[in-house]
TrEMBL record:
It catalyses: 2-dehydro-3-deoxy-6-phospho-D-gluconate = D-glyceraldehyde 3-phosphate + pyruvate. SUPFAM superfamilies: Aldolase. This is 2-dehydro-3-deoxy-phosphogluconate aldolase. Belongs to the KHG/KDPG aldolase family. It comes from Advenella kashmirensis (strain DSM 17095 / LMG 22695 / WT001) (Tetrathiobacter kashmirensis).
């Protein structure tokens, strides 16, 4: 499965910051129950790699990837844990040899036209616009489409229930990502039904968009 196929499979990607393996299992179950099938587990917490390992084992129907990949060692560890794709807020040069060696589907972060063109030239036609709302959001994506029609984006950063459908309606957006699907307050409250409802609502909106 290539990166674009993974984005289209979403087309809503929860960006998850997990505090424990148990939490990861509970949140992922809740999101699966709401219809989400593709997950980005960020490597921002000590529990992340164990979480990926357990999620891959527990939910074979889910596509589990990692986010916030910043160097080759993290990429290797994530692949060992069973991650099926990788995401980064950017495209650090130090990652390129490891990406070439592993050929894992990879979604690099970009924020400007030059970064988008450089990532495209490095072989990545599917890219994360990050942080989407802060760098220009919907107007920026509309402006990028005319000169760069062969680049497809997964905007992330500031996406939520009220603006996700507007992004998904753009011709150069295949997926939207964000933390709004599993907000910290619902996770801390153990409100799994609430998370399922957010996921179902996001998918319903994506079908209308
Ligand atoms: O760190 C940011 C996350 O990757 C996604 O951003 P968000 O919390 O605005 O959805
Ligand atoms: C921003 C994002 O999705 C990441 O940390 O990879």
């Amino acid at each position: 499965m290539d990166t674009l196929a993974i984005l289209k499979r979403g087309p809503v990607m929860p960006v998850m910051v997990i505090q424990s393996v148990d939490e990861a299992l509970q949140v992922t179950r809740a999101l699966l129950d709401g219809g989400i099938n593709t997950f980005e587990i960020t490597l921002r917490t000590p529990a992340a790699l164990d979480g990926v390992r357990e999620l891959v084992a527990a939910f074979p129907q889910a596509l589990i990837g990692v986010g916030t990949v910043r160097d080759a060692d993290q990429l290797e560890a994530a692949l060992q844990a069973g991650a099926r794709f990788a995401v980064s807020p950017g495209l650090p040069a130090a990652l390129l040899p490891a990406l070439a060696a592993n050929r894992v589907p990879f979604l690099p972060g970009v924020a400007t036209p030059t970064e988008a063109m450089n990532a495209f030239d490095a072989g990545f036609a599917a890219q994360k616009l990050f942080p989407a709302e802060a760098v220009g959001g919907v107007p920026l994506l509309k402006s990028l489409h005319s000169p760069l029609p062969d680049i497809v984006f997964c905007p992330t950063g500031g996406i939520h229930a009220a603006n996700a459908a507007t992004y998904l309606a753009l011709p150069n957006v295949a997926c939207v990502g964000g933390s709004w699907l599993a907000p910290a307050n619902l996770v801390q409250a153990g409100d799994w039904a609430g998370i399922t409802a957010l996921a179902a609502a996001a998918l319903a909106q994506s079908r209308q968009g």
